[in-house]
Amino acid sequence: MSVNLLKFKRRHWWQSCYIWAVWIEGPVGFGLLLSCRIVQALQLYFIFGKRRLPPMRSHVCLPLFLLPWFAGAALIHMKQPLNNHCHMGAQWVIPVVSFHTLYVATLVAFTGAIRHIEFRFNELRDLWRGIVVSSSSIGVWIAAYALNEIHEEIAWLQVVSRFLLLVTSSILVLAFFSISSSQPLLSQISIRRREPLKYETMGQALGIPDSGLLMQREPSQAIDPNEPLDKLLQNKRFRQSFMAFADSCLAGESVHFYDDVHELGKIPVNDSVRRIYMARDIIDKYITAGAPMEVNISYRCRQDILTTSNLAHPALFDNALNELLQLMKMNLAKDYWSSTFFLKFKEEASMRSDAHEIEPMTGWNFSPRPSGVRGADDPFQQECLTKHSDHSSGPTDPI
C-alpha cells in the first residue's frame, strides 16, 4: 500500500511539474503576456508610424503570436524531457531560452520603431516597462536554473531557486504586465484609474479647445430654418439642441458623428499625433462594423475610411459627413422645426439675448431676473454667486 501511495505522489509531482513548467510559464503565462505587448506595439506601429489601420484586428493577430507557444508546450509535454528533479537538459533549455529572447527582441524592435512618437497616454513608457520586466524575468529564470544544476545537493537552495522560477513564471509577470491588446489607443480615455482627472470624450482627453463645453458668454445667433443644415450645425448651441432631439428619436448617431468630426477639425493639420488619436476614436465609435454608434453610410465610403493610407488626412471623413447630412435633412430636420426642442431653443436664445442687452446697462447686478436655466441645472450658478460675493461689498464700474 505504501508503494502505491509513493507512486501516486510521484505521479502527482510529475503532473505538477509539467503543468507549471510547460503550460503556466509558457502559453498561459509569459507567452500570453508577451504576445499581448507585441500586438499592442504592432498596432501602435501601424497606426502612428504608418498612419493606417493594422491589416489584422488584435483578436486575430494575438492567436497567431500565441500559436508557437502552444505548439512548443505540446511538444515538450509529449517528449517529457524533465528528469526526477523536474529539470530539463541543456538541449532543451537553450531552445526554450532562445524562444523567450526572440519574443522580447521582437517587442524591442517594434517599440524602437515608434520611440520618436510623442504619445499622449504613456503607451511607450508601458512598452519599455514590459521589456525591462520580461528581460529581468528571463535573467532570473536562467540564474535559478543554473543554481539548480550546479548546487543540486543543497536543499534550501533548491527551494529558493524553485520559488524564483515560480515567481518569474507567474506572479511577477502578472503583477507588472497589463493585457491591453485590443485597444492600446485608449479608447481607454481614462487609462489610469489612479489619476483623479477623468474625461468623458476623446476631445477633452486630447485638450481640444472648448471640447464639449458651452461658454457662458457665447454670443446668441438668430436661427433661420431656411439656411442649410450644415451651416446651422456650426452653432454649438443649435447643434446640442438638434442632438438632443435626434437622441430622443433614437437616431442621434449621425449628429454625434458630426460633432466629433467638428472637434477633429479644431486640431491643427500639422499635429498628426492628436489627429490620429481622434480619427481612430471616431472610427472605433462610428465606422467599424458593429461599432457602439455605427452610422448609416455606404459600403464604399466605409471602406475608403478603413483602408485609408493616412489617418491624419484633413478630408478623411468628408464623404461620410456629406452622406449623413443628406440623411439628417430628409429624416430629422423637418421634424425638428416643429418639435418642443426647437421651441425651447428659441426661448432660451431669446432670454440670453435679453440678458446681454440688460447687462451693459446695469453692470454686475445679480438681482433676480428671468433665466432659461435655474437651480442645480445652471452650470454657471456657482460662478455667479462667487462674483456676487466679491462685488456685494461696494459699487462696481459698469462693463
UniProtKB/TrEMBL annotation:
Keyword Transmembrane found: yes
Domain RGS as annotated: residue spans: 228-346
Superkingdom, natural source: Eukaryota
Region (Disordered): 360-399
SMART domains: RGS (SM00315)
Transmembrane segments: 20-48, 60-78, 90-114, 126-147, 159-179
Name of the molecule in the record: Regulator of G-protein signaling 1 isoform X2
